[in-house]
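Exercise: predict the structure of this protein bound to fe (ii) ion.
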Amino acid sequence: MEESLRGLHALMIVCLVCSSRLSYVWAHGDGLVDQPLSKIGVHNIVVELDDSVSVNAYPPILGLEGQDTEWVTVNIEHPNPDKNDWVGVFSPAKFDGSTCWPSGDPKKQSPYVCTAPIKYKFATDSNSGYTKTGKSCLKFQLINQRADFAFALFSGGIWNPKLVAISNKISFSNPKAPLYPRLAQGKSWDEMTVTWTSGYNIDEAVPFVEWARDGEPSKQSPAGTLTFDKNSMCGGPARSVGWRDPGFIHTSFLKDLWPNTVYTYRVAHRLCNNEIVWGKNYTFKSSPFPGEDSLQRVIIFGDMGKAERDGSNEYSNYQPGSLNTTDQLIKDLRNYDIVFHIGDITYSNGYLSQWDQFTAQVEPIAATVPYMIASGNHERDWPNSGSFYDGEDSGGECGVPAETMFFVPAENRAKFWYKTDYGMFRFCIADSEHDWREGTEQYKFIEECLSTVDRRKQPWLIFSAHRPLGYSSNQWYGEEGSFEEPMGRESLQNLWQKYRVDIAFYGHVHNYERTCPVYQSKCVNEEKHHYRGALGATIHIVVGGAGAHLSPFSKVIPRWSIYRDYDWGFVKLTAFNHSSLLLEYKKSSDGKVYDAFTITRDYRDILACVKDGCPATTSAS
Ligand SMILES: *[C@@H]1O[C@H](CO)[C@@H](O)[C@H](O)[C@H]1NC(C)=O
Ligand SMILES: *[C@@H]1O[C@H](CO)[C@@H](O)[C@H](O)[C@H]1NC(C)=O
Ligand SMILES: *[C@@H]1O[C@H](CO)[C@@H](O)[C@H](O)[C@H]1NC(C)=O
Ligand SMILES: [Fe+2]
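Solution:
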């Protein structure tokens, strides 16, 4: 009786999960959006270890030559194979119930497993003969994630798994190694920040960065250390099966940089015995002086997420475009200077191991150019946690990993809005997961950011937020009739107009769309490709197609919509000088340009009157 009641209860939970997933899919209209790790019924796992089944993994020690990623071979032998058998990669390797949180109820038996694997594959993967022979050889690419690994074979599929065998443990030779450095602009133009992850807390080793200009003696700069624990998660998988220790996150501030200068750097930890554990060597070019006239190139995209190159987690079913975008950007690394990833960073959704996978995926980019992020629903949203939206899209993370893993020059990193200058550009990055409407703290910040830039020196004024606060003819906004995130532009369009914002960028909607210079839903300029003189209003661009499943457009094409593309891609902005700007939209599949426009103008064109944005004049003299 009790048993069947429990079954019923489980069924009800499953149904609730199904229906909330359905509504999620419906609301976003973009097909498969589940975090693949959430499909695993971790709490349903039962243990039926079987001595006739074997799982062996090798090599036993990884990274003997200092690598931070390595391929591992896993051999399986199962006398009763089934096509639903699968292998989960667990890290730490000890993943039994002893790691579970006490339930507080002595009558309740604690579950056998309460942590999700960091990745998984079906035993039939690349071994179609498995169901006949019971033998399979799987290859996994592992990254160094501060703990050892074990491979567990399950039968019964991923929702009702039966644990039948566990492999030997394997480990990186130094699991604590400092890894995945990511650069970000500091609070002033001559400061670069380096953030990285390690297994060393401050009582074990002192973190620092060694850096130098070409041919000069090197300097050392101290780093601060942060971490967070399960109690700072707000709920969901982040506080239960998705939790994984994030290690220690260090940030160093490299100051007094010369403009446009190449520096080499490496991160490091000095152990108590004075031995130093070094990271790899990297180089970056420091930022230009604000207003400086030089070639400046910016990459912008949203919603990239991550994918597993070894085919784990059903390969790219979650963010199909992610690896293509990453690879195009790695290939083109010499041809841009700074990156903005405007929200929906990893789609970890409460499965914390995925933050390491993401920082490993973007490492070649983020360790070389500043990688500036914005906050999206998948970083921040959680009910009753202060986010503007009450959804559960962060899987319980409520912003904490994003605010810790990546540095942004915000006054308060929990309020994810900031300004940053890059030569002739001023960027005002808003946080659409907190209220932006007139009268709010954020609105004040936006006005301050837009109004404090000297446009003769920094003519290119860019606004950005994760959700389309301006214009989008995405299907669900079309059905709503708003053609924007509801309440998006109502109070902000006055600011964009008054301060002559050139371009506003958004993600969230997974496609590309460019508008005319538009104000109050009307084009103020009929030109489509070569804007000359006063722009008249802001051009709004949705560039949320860097990785996640694509979002269909509405059938109606509003007059302000100039170019729409249902494909994966990203934007490159090039400022040649104070009077010439080029925007290019490239597809992630081939890196070629599919949409472009230029703006050519003088300073007086910025000062000139625009609709509802004319400064008062007097005839007194
Ligand atoms: C990194 O740079 C330092 C300082 O120039 C040098 O001593 C070291 O050998 C380099 N390490 C590697 C792995 O190239
Ligand atoms: C600005 O750059 C454009 C594009 O390279 C060039 O045609 C133009 O002559 C430059 N203008 C000035 C003032 O240097
Ligand atoms: C990724 O790029 C390859 C090579 O251009 C292409 O064949 C493939 O379709 C792309 N994948 C996606 C999801 O766009
Ligand atoms: Fe989003």
